[in-house]
Amino acid sequence: MASHSIHILGIESSCDDTSVSIVTDGKVLSNFTISQWIHQKYGGVVPEAASRLHVESIVELTAAALTQAGIEKKQLSAVAVTRGPGLIGSLLVGISFAKSLSLSLQIPIIEVNHLQAHVMSLFIDQAPRFPMIGMTVSGGHTQLLLIRDYADFEILGQTLDDAAGEAFDKTGKLLGLPYPAGPEMDKWSKSGSVRFPFPIAQVADYGFSFSGLKTAVLYFLKDQLKQDPQFIENNLADLCASVQDNICKTLLIKLKKAAIQYEVRSVGVAGGVSANSQLRKELQELCTLHEWQLLVPKLSYCVDNGAMIAWTGYHKFLKGQFVDDRFPPLARYPII
Ligand code: KG4
Ligand code: ZN
Question: What are the Cα distances from residue 213, in Å, to 43, 78, 171, 224, 297?
């Protein structure tokens, strides 16, 4: 490794995953994540518990990331950290830790927008062709973006209410699946058929809405359970397949419309929901048909991860985009 290499430590702690990564000269050398399963017990993220668990794992994860990358703390060029959007207490843990590293090592600090980092994760180890339609689908956000260049994004539309990941989690909760329900629903759907036609919300332009699906599933289940108290257990795979199909269709209809309208050369989908196997399969088919290049991050870069923070930090480092260490976390932080 050249002595003038740029080593960025990236820290992610915006919600319920603690993750630390090292990116050296634009290559991810390590990426360690601990997902906090304790929230399963409560059916959703408990902010105070999340903050405390970040405190417990952040030091160990940083040591592991450095060791795997073969780098010592004193070699770090800068530390990048998620500033928002996210849970304030959780963000504060990562930010305080990053600030103390920056202060003790006398290295610059780089603040990163979590949503921008999800988009940037599309470019880790992959070269895009612009213009591109990007979609970020996570537990907190659903956005459709026109991406003209690496740092040139325009939001075409977003969700009016629940995010796509929330739609998986909330309908999954109604079906008795543990939190986060997205991966569980993905698994169950594999053995199910799309038998229950839930309505697809009609939203103008490039907007999305998922709260109607949750209500439709709730009332449907109430009706069915009156006749058969075992209805969910007896039909779980088909229920999952039907809900998942609805969410994937809703996303793909808008994505396809935008890709055609803007005559794009590639399509990218990032964020936790991009791990969904049906979404990935249907995206691949759509892109093959239209000869669009498809960019989907590796699974470990889909869910919240330090690599996307270190990677975005590396690009900000090259542009000299540092901040002074008095910045506060931001619960809301629009991408542009
Ligand atoms: O990006 P992410 O890790 O965290 C946020 O920034 O929100 O996304 C988490 C979301 C959760 O709602 C989870 O249920 C969903 O991503 N998710 C999935 C899958 N894996 C994670 N949804 C559907 N299918 C999956 N395989
Ligand atoms: Zn995220």
Answer: 19, 44, 8, 16, 27
0.90 exceeded by pTM: no
- In this structure, which residue's CA is closest to atom 8 in ligand 1? 272
Token couple for 246: 């609805």
* Span from the CA of 325 to the centroid of ligand 2 (angstroms): 24
**pLDDT over 90 for what percent of the chain?**
86
Q: Is the pLDDT of residue 32 over 70?
A: yes
- Judge if the beta carbon of residue 296 lies within 6 A of ligand 1: no
Return the sign of the alpha-carbon dihedral for residues 274, 247, 215, 241.
negative
Q: What pLDDT shows up at residue 40?
A: 78
Q: Quick check: 280 and 274 in contact, CB under 8 A?
A: yes
Rounded distance, CA 196 to CA 161, Å?
Answer: 23
Are 304 and 195 spatial neighbours (Cβ–Cβ below 8 Å)? Answer: no
Q: What's the rounded Cα separation, in Å, for the pair 218 and 235?
A: 15
Closest by alpha carbon to 80, among 32, 115, 51, 117? 117
Nearest to 35 by CA among 195, 202, 183: 183
Mean pLDDT check: name the lowest of 3-7, 149-153, 177-181, 242-246: 149-153
- What pLDDT is recorded for position 311? 97
Q: Are 163 and 139 in contact (CB under 8 A)?
A: yes
Is the pLDDT reported for residue 156 higher than 90? yes
Name which of 297, 307, 298, 190 is nearest 240 in CA terms: 190
Closest residue to atom 21 of ligand 1, CA basis: 272
Atom of ligand 1 nearest to the CA of 164: 12
What mean pLDDT is predicted for residues 243-261? 98
Write down the pLDDT at residue 2: 58
Q: Of all atoms in ligand 1, which is nearest to the CA of residue 14?
A: 6
